Amino acid sequence: MQILEDTIKKKGIIINEHVLKVDSFLNHQIDPNLIDQIALAFKDYFKHKKVDKIITIESSGIAPALLLGLHLQVPVVFMKKAIPNTLHEGVYQTEVFSFTKQKSYLLNISKQYIHKNEHIIFVDDFLASGEACLGALTLLQEAGAHIEGIGIVIEKSFQSGAQKIKDLGFDLCSLAKIKTMSKNYIEFIS
Ligand code: 5GP
After folding, report:
1. In this predicted structure, what is the pLDDT of residue 59?
2. Whole-angstrom Cα distance, residue 54 to residue 56?
3. Apex 43 CA angle, 166 and 23, nearest 5
4. What is the Rg, in whole angstroms, of the alpha carbon atoms belonging to the chain?
5. Ligand 1: which atom is nearest the Cα of residue 18?
6. Is omega for the bond preceding 24 within 30 degrees of 0, making it cis?
């Protein structure tokens, strides 16, 4: 997606060869026009799929997931990293390891908001080692949902996540695929 690649080149900060900071338009401050175009690109890619619900992980996946949900007119659910004490019903829960924070955390989704046979698109900001995505997919499969596809804003293709997801047979749509990056240099897979 050209405008996304251009924005990453212009506004992204390459912290090191593994970590890209995009908090001026995606992860902290959010560019609503760009996110809207991202959501429309996902909508177009998944146009032949039946979709009942969009699922994401708090917090950075929420913006693109929300706008995709708006365009598809379906609910959006985000997995929580902590269980609030208002969540009395059962939860599906799994532990994942965070690449950026270098520590484990829990993913939680209430059994109220994910049901057997629901058709799901999972959306997230980054795909790196695939831990977060695979953890989320495990919960969705445990709930008996049908995973129609995975929408990723930025895939770091030099890490193992994308290959793992494709090897499992999932339909993966990554809008910007980074082949390689280093200080002042970034190359995308077209
Ligand atoms: P994974 O579990 O695939 O290794 O990493 C996915 C999660 O880690 C994403 O949801 C994102 O929050 C975070 N992440 C991974 N790589 C990066 C990165 O280069 N930059 C930022 N800002 N977050 C990342």
Report:
1. 95
2. 7
3. 80
4. 16
5. 19
6. no
pLDDT per position as a tens digit, 31-42: 999 999 999 999
Rounded-to-integer distance, Cα 98 and Cα 52, Å: 28
Name the residue of 55, 125, 166 to mutate for ligand 1: max ligand atoms within 8 A of Cβ: 125
Atom of ligand 1 nearest to the CA of 127: 3
Ligand 1 atom closest to residue 130's alpha carbon, by position in its atom list: 3
Pocket test for ligand 1, best of 28, 60, 100 (most atoms within 8 A of CB): 100
Residue 88 predicted with pLDDT over 70: no
> What is the model's pTM?
0.97
Q: What is the pLDDT of residue 99?
A: 73
Task: Work out the pLDDT band at 53, boundaries 50, 70, 90.
Answer: very high
